[in-house]
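PROTOCOL LOG
Step 1. Enter all chains and additional molecules of the complex.
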Amino acid sequence: MQGLHLTADLSGCRRGTPALTEIDALRALCLQAVATAGLQPVGERFHAFPPENGEPRGVTGVVLLSESHLAVHTWPELDAVTLDVYVCHRRGDNSARAEAAVEVLIAAFAPAHAARHRLARG
Amino acid sequence: MQGLHLTADLSGCRRGTPALTEIDALRALCLQAVATAGLQPVGERFHAFPPENGEPRGVTGVVLLSESHLAVHTWPELDAVTLDVYVCHRRGDNSARAEAAVEVLIAAFAPAHAARHRLARG
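Step 2. Run joint prediction.
Step 3. Record the structure below.
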């Protein structure tokens, strides 16, 4: 199954961004990215790591898609986030939708730098 | 956050492998891969796509890890599977654990061919 897997590893993310530390905010952001891109969610799971030494730790989550998946992991202590949007092309080329989802996510975290990769799958 | 993302895109998978079509079998396989590799699950979500024209369709799922995530998508109609195991190195180098998990998954599907990639993340 041919597909496109986009990754973006973000550094210097804007401190205080709710989705860095709050599970509900990350969930809402991911679902917004999926909806904006026109992708089809079929399931989701999110997890918040417990605070350490009174400092918030990261949140992580995945939206399963009819087209494959979207995943986000945050490290607020490092101002860092990693993103994955992987789409298969079963019912047409979903590359533009994957790009749109990544753009929504990157914009929300406002990073100083984004290291992006494209991997052809299948 | 430095990490390693392994992907494997499998073709010619062994027909009749339960994890190609059965959600419980795929879930058990993923959790076995995680446990064998010594990775730490913190959540999971699996989804089975409904049959089409009486033929089984794929199953898909993710295990969220303390180290990041493991994802599998199957296309039984194409004898194809794609795998992702992504680990961060927050508490030490998890590369060997990621490799071990991928090996468990590949062995279960017994593909004729596996297209594998390694992506340094972070």
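Step 4. Note key features.
Strands of chain A lie at 3-11, 41-48, 59-65, 68-75, 80-88, 113-121.
Chain A has one domain: 3-121.
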